[in-house]
């Protein structure tokens, strides 16, 4: 059999996914909300990541005419499910921590797939704040991996009146970090950062405030970035096209 043809055949098709990079202004500059994935997860166990997850069929209904509609919807839904932060308004007003806590029954419904996000909005009178999302990048899992994702990354300012609450299932720990703190933890082998997370933090480290980060990193369109994994002499190397480690 042609080995090249076999290799192409065995490449796993990426699953659509989305991530929100939650930001706030801190005493030492911009801070990022990051979670530690549970050791039991079948993808990225123990990694330090941003909230996010795969697109579901229920994410398609809200923005049917937007090519990125399902990704934006998934980003908002997954962030609510994982860390209890909800980018939404009611009657044009920002939600408070008390408002969001009262909606936790819907958080449970979404996690259990017993309701879709459009039903959530209709039943609660919420308008999801898609304008709060700022597209910055698109990353595709290397093709040699057994499970792959095609993930759009969005920046979003942490809602002023809300408090994150990790689900303790996918996100077993969480904290606010400056990008430089997270990168230093990685250098000390205190955490696992995968390439999309690492390079997003590297980009964010160049900015002193949320406004600066959004102005500097937002993109109208993005091209997919797919790291390449190579093995030579028993050593594994991950290369990112267009990027070079310091």
Automatic annotation (TrEMBL):
It comes from the Bacteria. PROSITE patterns: NUDIX. Its cofactor is Mn(2+); Mg(2+). InterPro entries: NUDIX_hydrolase-like_dom_sf (IPR015797), NUDIX_hydrolase_dom (IPR000086), NUDT19 (IPR039121). Residues 13-206 form the Nudix hydrolase domain. Keywords: Hydrolase, Magnesium, Manganese, Metal-binding. PANTHER family: ACYL-COENZYME A DIPHOSPHATASE NUDT19, TESTOSTERONE-REGULATED PROTEIN RP2. This is Nudix hydrolase domain-containing protein.
């Amino acid at each position: 059999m042609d080995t090249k043809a076999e290799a192409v055949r065995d490449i796993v098709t990426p699953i659509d996914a989305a991530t929100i990079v939650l930001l706030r202004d801190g005493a030492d500059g911009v801070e990022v909300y990051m979670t530690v994935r549970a050791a039991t997860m079948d993808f990225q166990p123990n990694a330090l990541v941003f909230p996010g997850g795969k697109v579901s069929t229920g994410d398609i209904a809200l923005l049917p005419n937007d090519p990125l509609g399902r990704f934006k919807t998934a980003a908002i839904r997954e962030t609510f499910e994982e860390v209890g932060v909800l980018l939404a308004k009611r009657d044009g007003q920002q939600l408070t921590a008390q408002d969001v806590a009262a909606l936790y029954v819907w958080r449970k419904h979404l996690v259990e797939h017993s309701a879709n996000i459009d039903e959530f909005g209709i039943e609660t009178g919420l308008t999801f704040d898609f304008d709060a999302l700022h597209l910055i990048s698109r990353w595709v899992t290397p093709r040699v991996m057994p499970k792959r994702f095609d993930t759009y990354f969005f920046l979003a300012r942490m809602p002023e009146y809300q408090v994150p609450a990790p689900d303790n299932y996918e996100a077993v720990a969480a904290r606010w970090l400056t990008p430089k703190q997270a990168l230093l933890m990685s250098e000390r082998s205190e955490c696992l950062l995968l390439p999309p997370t690492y390079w997003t933090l590297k980009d964010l480290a160049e900015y002193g405030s949320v406004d600066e980060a959004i102005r500097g990193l937002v993109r109208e369109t993005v091209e997919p970035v797919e790291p390449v994994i190579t093995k030579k002499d028993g050593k594994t190397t991950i290369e990112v096209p267009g990027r070079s480690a310091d």
